[in-house]
Amino acid sequence: MKVIIAPDSFKDSLSATQVAKHIHQGVKQVAPSIETLQIPMADGGEGTMDILTQILGGVKIAVNVLDPLLRPIKANFGWVASTNTAIIEMAQASGIQLLTQVERNPLFTSSYGTGQLIAAALQHQCKRILICIGGSATNDVGCGMLQALGVKFKDNQGSTLPTITGQQLTNIHQIDIGHLPELINGVSIEILNDVTNPLYGTNGATQVYAPQKGATNEVVYLLEKAIIGLAQTIFDATGIDIQSIAGAGAAGGIGGTLKCFLQGNIMNGVQSVMDAYKLEEVFKQADTKNSLVITGEGKLDTQSGQGKVISGIAQLAKKHKLPVVVLAGKVDIAATENKKLNIDATFSIVNAPMSLTDALNNAGKLIENTTTNIVSLWASHKLPK
Which of 211, 238, 274, 347 is buried most, with the most CB atoms less than 10 Å from its CB? Predict the structure, then answer.
């Protein structure tokens, strides 16, 4: 008997590695004889750099950068010397977790620090960069990032603008890409992403995600208007219609600018992590009659089926006829939706009325308890009496 443990992180509570460990402990409390395989997952958001750096045998390098509010901090990127590969996580420098609730407002945040991480990677003469763009605090269409790489943005008088935040987007009338083509020449760039949203519109970066980053309705209106105008300016500079790119709206629009200005290839983040693990082979070799897959995330909702860890793991498990159970801090879908997500069962780890703070602080124990109940039921039909 084997339990394959492949969870995402539980945001604001536990990393994917910690979640996997607690599930493992819950399994062992039922039956120490059950084999477990811990495979911490990510989809391009927080934690992806750590996981990929470990899988690929790299090290982490610390860099002085600016956070979303342009304050000095240290951030890490992964470096795999054997393949000259850099692994950059936007959340390290421009992540929403770096800001308090009251600081979150995409009018005033910038992706400049992410550009500094890319610049540091380029100084290592890297040949390949993996850029994980989930978890951002920004909606500046990656303009701050481009500034850190030498791109100049000018107003209608031809004057160079200061560091771009969401508030500055409306002032951009001309883009000077400078020496950027020479800087990235010979470097393969892969953009690890979990959404396909366009840059603007009802499903775009601003209307869908800016409210999650602290934007009021008024801020959403201002950013949307500015971004529509910026799309034309980007076309004038690159000849590329950024709105036509699936995933251009990812991470406040940085998905689109990485494609337009750095010739990056937008990749499915969770698929990239599964490929790094060679997870297809792991699932293929699993005994369908005596194996169980347990995955999980902080909140299970309709977005979980759209390029997230749950979706990737469940699809692969279904392909190899393996049962899938999902643990979540909050289950926000009906049980009738499980089949659409290729899930066999879902369980909330919250077992009694409690505050969000209590749930976050006790998530590890709650995961263990829920796992114990699930595996007890499963094992009762599998283990010899």
Answer: 274
Question: By CB neighbour count within 10 A (0-12 exposed, 13-18 middle, 19+ buried), where does 157 fall?
Answer: exposed
- Sign, CA torsion 271/317/246/137: negative
pTM for this predicted structure: 0.91
CB 125 within 8 A of CB 185: no
Q: Per-10-residue mean pLDDT for the chain, 385 residues long?
A: 94 92 96 95 92 96 98 98 97 95 97 98 95 95 98 96 96 96 96 92 95 96 97 95 95 96 94 95 94 93 78 95 94 84 92 88 94 92 63
Q: Which two tokens stand for residue 121?
A: 């990677």
Helix, strand and coil content of the chain, in percent to the nearest 5, comes to: 45, 20, 35
Q: Residue 370: CB partners within 8 Å, gap ≥ 6?
A: 26, 327, 347, 348, 349, 351
Q: How far apart are CA 295 and CA 187, in angstroms?
A: 35
Separation of alpha carbons 313 and 283, rounded Å: 10
**At 353, is the secondary structure helix, strand, or coil?**
coil
The backbone torsions φ and ψ at residue 118, rounded to the nearest 5 degrees and listed phi first, read -65, -45
At CA 132, angle to CA 250 and CA 70, rounded to 5?
80
Strands (E) across 8-109 are located at 35-38, 59-66, 72-80, 85-89
What's the CA gap between 190 and 206, in Å, rounded? 23
